[in-house]
From TrEMBL, chain B:
NCBIfam families: csrA (TIGR00202), PRK01712.1 (NF002469). This is Translational regulator CsrA. A translational regulator that binds mRNA to regulate translation initiation and/or mRNA stability. Usually binds in the 5'-UTR at or near the Shine-Dalgarno sequence preventing ribosome-binding, thus repressing translation. Its main target seems to be the major flagellin gene, while its function is anatagonized by FliW. Residues 53-80 are annotated as: Disordered. The gene is csrA. It comes from Nocardioides fonticola.
Length: 141, 80
């Protein structure tokens, strides 16, 4: 399972460090819309979204299904249209980590995942309609 | 800030295509209905604020944090 996911992340995000453009800025970072997705480990699990406009800003992100197998957010039509998504195969879902040095205290934002359309290299942090989803879910249960 | 008084059932129209209707007032809770095009994002203010704060807190972890997290993830027990 993990090996497959590694391939997925690698195949859509090759070594040339693609720059992704956010169709609207992430809340709290109104000036920043261009980010590079960088793989931080050999397994393609831990990645960073580094701001092109402000290189001091980066977010740690992971593919959620490795940690939250039941997490299956539904994207509304507006998100699909905004990101120009034509095929589900083009979509990569990432969740933002609020990281501490202890894995046990690290949380993931499941309420507002980052949805990337790899075909158009466009992304958005989408607030899901299911407002019961946690904004700080422990990464390791 | 424009301040208006409205009764239950009355509405306010913003721009060409956003209508806000007062549906119910019970104690200090007011229910409002918002009719807007899908392209207009409607969110609770406190949710956006919390998301902004969480993003700020999540941004730019130290190299040490990243290194220890990467190590812990590498060493964590793998699911079958």
């Amino acid at each position: 399972m993990i090996a497959t996911d590694v391939q997925t992340v690698r195949s859509v995000m090759p070594d040339d460090v693609p720059v992704i453009e956010f169709v609207h800025p992430m809340p709290g970072f109104d000036e920043l819309v261009r980010f590079a997705l960088v793989q931080l480990d050999d397994d393609g699990v831990l990645c960073a979204l580094r701001s092109v406009e402000d290189p001091d800003v980066r977010f740690l992100v992971v593919p959620p299904h490795l940690f939250f197998p039941d997490y299956a957010p539904v994207l509304d039509d507006e998100t699909v249209a905004e990101l120009g998504i034509e095929s589900a195969d083009d979509v990569v879902l990432l969740v933002v980590l609020n990281a501490t040095e202890s894995l046990a205290d690290t949380t993931a934002n499941l309420l507002a995942p980052i949805v990337v359309n790899t075909a158009g290299r466009r992304a958005a942090q989408v607030i899901l309609a299911d407002t019961e989803l946690p904004i700080r879910a422990p990464l390791i249960a | 800030m424009l301040v208006l008084s409205r009764r239950v059932g009355e509405s306010v129209v913003i721009g060409d295509d956003v209508t806000i209707t007062i549906l119910e007032v019970r104690g200090d809770v007011v229910r409002v209905g918002i009719d807007a095009p899908r392209s207009v994002a409607v969110n609770r203010a406190e949710l956006l604020k919390e998301l902004g704060a969480t993003n700020q807190e999540s941004a730019s972890p130290s190299e040490q944090t990243v290194a220890s997290l990467a190590k812990a993830l590498r060493e964590r027990p793998q699911r079958d």
